[in-house]
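Good morning C.,

I know you're traveling, so I'll keep this short. The sequence:
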Amino acid sequence: MDQSTKSNKNKIVCIIGAGISGMVTAKSCLEYGIEPVVYERTKNLGGLWRFRELVEPGQGSVMRSTVVNSSKVMTAFSDYPFPDDYPNFMPNELMYEYLVNYGKEFQLESHVRFSHDVLRIEHAKDPNDGYMVTVKDLNNDFIQTLRYDAVAVCSGHHHTPKSPTFPGQETFQGKIIHSHEVRSILNNEDFIDKRIVVLGIGNSGGDVAAEAAPVAKQVYLSSRNGGTWLLRRTGLGGQPVDTVGIRRAFMGALHTLPYSLRCSVMEFLASRMVGHDLLGLRPENIRFFEQHAMINDHIPTYIHLGWIKMRFGIERFTPNGVVFERDNGHVTECDLVVMATGYEHSFPFITSEVFDTSNGRFDLYKHVFDPRQPQPERLAFIGLPAANGSLPPISEIQSRWFCLLLTGQCKPLPSVKKMFKKIENDRIWVADRFGADRVDHFRFEVEMMDYMDMVARSAGLMPNIFIHMIKDPRLWWSLVFKPCIAAQYRIKGPGAKPKQARKLILTIDERIKAPYRKVRKPEIIQQQQQQENGNEFDSKRALLNPNKTKFN
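The tokens, ready to paste straight into the viewer:
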């Protein structure tokens, strides 16, 4: 144990939420000699990745058929890879299993207080002493207030659904729900043989439309721009598309191009993959980098089959349906409208004296720290960015930066003036890319590799890539020309694991190919036999094959 770890042995951090971000923050605390106390409202680890059949207020959940959009090598934490035999794109139960095993590997569960709801966060009497956290034990309704040296907010933002209203909505005789309420569709009477409108064309809207299409009478996918830039999970040669696009060489070459040409390149590649013009998917007046691309393998096929039809936004409701924009007043009859319209960014447990968002802004330095705090490094928001990649590695590097700041193992945060300057520059970047009227909607949008590099530099975790050109050419080649995985940030700096990191980086291709081996290794056969005893993977896989449903 080094001196910095010894000196911080008595520091205690309150972590709110035991999902992906909360778990990795707890692990980072332990790694750097800080005591974590994790408060989790439910009785389980895993957050929204633990499937819940019943809708619980304030608690998100994946749908039964949800598959991870990012590939396993891009999703894994930096020092805990997925098993080789896991598929490259995991059904939600395997993602949850990975998180449970991660918790066991690093003994996180003993630091989690389940069935505890954080009610309020306030400054301590002396603000330099940290925060007072009021918590309710849901088992017995006991409420107590405790002081913590620092707080990490890891509760995410999939808990407060956002639903717009439209003229005539109160007259509609069908049913209106939010995608937050959708758990299982294939056996759901609200969807079977019904006419369904899905409003919103993000990943949630795409997932609902794709799962509903095989069982519904008709699905209409509605968005104000009439479409979206859509990517399949796999690209040329069957490679996971994120492992092709998120590489230093590719991103570096792309960034040398003017913005308009950069968009044109990606639009050409996406259209070659999907056929946006033919299918009516191309959005109006939205370039590729001006929205979050949807990841979905089924929607193009279902549009070809006529099961899904693209429409512009909803103009108004009628008693028996909706009128879409630009549809000449035609009433499209429907039975169910699903609002896949996202979530509010809200943290009701934080008092306005601590974090004031009354102006609708979330002014966070590098999307983590609030410069207005007496000691900004003591309050961190982990896992908020929306990236063109995977969230777990982003949450991990944010949590490591947070812990390194608390333990004094990296350079301190800049002045308040400089932090606000960075925040304003980020808002300008968002306004330039997405439009001034959409700044708040895309406030946390980042490019995965660029953002992680930025945080890594602040935390002292950025690998010196070019020095490896001489010291280790094979590693250098993989750092530049292979996918940029989280293990790159374990090569140097506090918490470095260079041998493990090197192995993970050099074996990326082998691990991508591993699930497709025709002859399995003996140890993999044993692992699979253990996994298949008593789990539901085969039955859930059957649910993921909707092609049987339409014709049964």
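Safe travels,
E.
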